[in-house]
Structure formats: C-alpha cells, structure tokens
Amino acid sequence: LRHLARKLRASGPVTVAEYMREALTNPGQGYYTRRGGVGESGDFITSPEISQVFGELIGIWYISEWMAMGKPTTLQLVELGPGRGTLTEDILRVFKQLASVLSKCDVSVHLVEVSPKLSEIQAVMLTGGKVQPNPEDESAYMKGISKTGIPIFWYRDIQDVPPGYSFYLAHEFFDALPIHKFQRTEKGWREVLVDIDPEVPDQLRFVLSPSRTPATQCFIQPEETRDHVEVCPEAGVIVQKLASRIEKDGGAALVADYGHDGTKTDTFRGFRNHKLHDVLSAPGTADLTADVDFSYLRKMAQGRTATLGPIKQREFLKNMGIDLRLQVLLQNSGDTATREQLLHSYDMLMNPKKMGDCFNFFALLPHHRLVHPDKKDKPESKSPLPPVAGFNELLLK
Ligand code: SAH
C-alpha cells in the first residue's frame, strides 16, 4: 500500500491492470512473489489441490491427443502458472504408469512461473529440491530432473520456452492476469482507474478517467452492449503466442478456469484466507482475480488454430471418465475415511453449485486435428478423425 500510495501521489491514478500487476507480481511486494497462497493452508484452493483425479484425467487427455496426432517422438509439457506443482506431479504419475505407451517419446516439462517462492515449492514437489539455478546453456532460470526421471525447466515468460511440439496447460492462470475495466457513461466509454482517496489517509478508491484512455479506444468493440466490460490484453497476447506455436510446431493447449463467454460484467474480486476480500484493501496480501472471457481468447487465436469449448468442468470430467476412476479408487480403498474423502472431493469438483458449473475447459488444437485438410475434395476416402476426449461424450466399447 505504501509503495502504491507513493506512486499514485506522484503520478496520478493508474489503470486497474497496472494496480493488479503491482499487487500480484511486483518483484518485491507482489502477492504471488511473496507468498502465492494456493492450497488449504493458503488463501484459495484449486482443483488439483482437491483431488489427484483431476490431474490424472488431464494427463490422460494429453496422452489421448498425442496418440490421435500420430505419436510424435518428442513432447514438451508446458504449464503456465503451476502453483504448488501438484497438477504436473499428477500428470507425470500418469505418464509413468503409461510409460510403455510413451516409451519412444522424449518427454520434457517446461514451467512458466514468475514467483520465486512458488518455483521453490514446485522444485521440492517435483524434483525433491535437486535443481540447478541459472543453467548456462539454457534460456531457463532453473532446471532439474523429476522424481520419474523427466527433465524440468523453469522460465519467467512463455517466449523463453524453446519451440517444438508442445502441450500447453493453463489452470487458474489466465484469471490472475491484469484486466482493464471500462464503464459506459453518458459521455461515452470511460476507463475505471485506481486512485488515492483524498478524504481518508492511505485508502484507495476507484475513479473514472475524465476522458477516453488509449485502452478504451483499443479494447471496446463498437457493437458492445454491456455497460461494464473487463478486458485482459495480456491473456490475449499469450493466446496469440500459443496459437502461433501450435500452428507452427503442432500440439495443443488446454485452458481451465472460471469464466464466461463474453457475457459477464463485473467479476474483479479478491480472496484472502478463503474469504472474499476488498480488492483495494491491503494490496499484496490477497489474491486478485477476474473471470476469464473465453470469447476474447477465441478471438485472439485469430483462426490460427481451431478452438473447442468452453464446456463446464463437470461435463469435461464426466466425458474424461471421472466416474469410472472414482469407482476404481473406492474399490481399492480399505478405510472409511479415505472413501469419504474421495466422495467429498468428487462432489467439490463436480457439484454444479461448487466447482462443476463455474469452471470451464477450453482447447486450442491444430485445424487438421478436427477436419481432414482435403476433406472437401474426397470426403469418403478418409477414415474419420478420432473425437477429442473431454469435449465429446464418453463412449464405452
Ligand atoms: N495452476 C495452479 C496455480 C494457480 S495460481 C493451480 O491450479 O493450483 C496462479 C499461478 O500463476 C501461480 O503459480 C502464480 O505465481 C502464477 N502467475 C501469476 N501471474 C503470472 C505471470 N504473469 N506469469 C507467470 N506466472 C504467473
């Protein structure tokens, strides 16, 4: 707060995006930089922290897509914002169990993480802490070997990840990126800004820009019907990068987050200690987040890849076979406490009133994965493409 107040006094109000960036990822004081409280003992809990089944099914999704794409001989798993590293850990366990399927494939893991604190936690989780900082021969800031023998690299930015056939994963990542907020007024669109409150010392408040800002001009579509709009340009830039990389080198991206398809208005909120927290109070001590606008992500793929979804988490997980997996785990667990825990975590992930409906899955895939390139010429001569798991109903043979 002191750092921000000094800045606001010196140079005037800042955009919500700049405020959010400072509060979350300021190199000294940002929430993620210092603590990043993912998990039960932190400020918010995520699906991979609730149940191992979540990451296992995502691991299966990647193997299924890798097979459908003709089993390429190298595969980079690139996770954006890996939190505590739990999701990657669960995926790597599946890769190990299916080692015979992946035996001819050279697998590596690439984690994009800005938080020194969280990258340390990830290193302990995934490698047992045996990592090499600043390897000279790589663009990564740290590298190590997973407990299952797979090389792992850490980067601050997606553009440092080497090119190559890659599967990208962004779970609860895009919602943490800075948003711009806009409001329709009688005088036209204005941007919502954060300023110091002149009446109360060291308190922040929202104000409206007196005139249009560069962001108002760039990000509000002429056909917009809503009165309040949130736009996350950083998410757009990252999706553009993912789409270009997939178009060029192959692979796929799976994005899972809470969000909407271009319909919601005011979703900016804070979480501290598992409770809603005023976004303007004690910046740097709470997670700040906004729903992901999937319609914007789809637009930013710019037709370079095909897109699937968003579909609700409970539908995606059902299509991935969560019910079967639960049955197996229940059969294999001897004690009542474990069985209750399994049922409780299933309910958290699947119940429409909990995480089942508000979380969505969205994918970027090469066009040829969904439509044969020469389908128009000889539709009958080609065997049908296998359906994309998770986005289609599970058919048991
Ligand atoms: N995917 C994890 C954690 C989600 S929290 C899970 O589901 O449990 C958001 C994650 O994104 C954290 O690891 C945070 O440090 C990281 N992060 C936030 N902003 C980032 C940015 N601009 N670049 C890279 N990582 C970022």
UniProtKB/TrEMBL annotation:
Pfam families named in the record: Methyltransf_28
What GO terms are given for molecular function?
protein-arginine omega-N symmetric methyltransferase activity
Q: Which InterPro entries match?
A: NDUFAF7, NDUFAF7_sf, SAM-dependent_MTases_sf
Q: Which GO terms describe its biological process?
A: methylation; mitochondrial respiratory chain complex I assembly
Q: What name does this protein carry?
A: Protein arginine methyltransferase NDUFAF7
Q: Where is this region: Disordered?
A: 372-391
The record lists the lineage as: Eukaryota, Metazoa, Chordata, Craniata, Vertebrata
**Any single GO CC term annotated in Swiss-Prot or TrEMBL for this entry:** mitochondrion
User: Which organism does this sequence originate in?
Assistant: Dicaeum eximium
* Enzyme Commission number(s): 2.1.1.320
Function text: Arginine methyltransferase involved in the assembly or stability of mitochondrial NADH:ubiquinone oxidoreductase complex (complex I). Acts by mediating symmetric dimethylation of 'Arg-118' of NDUFS2 after it assembles into the complex I, stabilizing the early intermediate complex.
What family does this chain come from, according to its entry? Answer: Belongs to the NDUFAF7 family.
Biased composition annotated in UniProt, kind: Basic and acidic residues:
372-381
Q: Catalyses which reaction? A: L-arginyl-[protein] + 2 S-adenosyl-L-methionine = N(omega),N(omega)'-dimethyl-L-arginyl-[protein] + 2 S-adenosyl-L-homocysteine + 2 H(+)
Sorted alphabetically, which keywords does the UniProt record give?
Answer: Methyltransferase, Mitochondrion, Transferase, Transit peptide
Cell compartment(s), UniProt: Mitochondrion
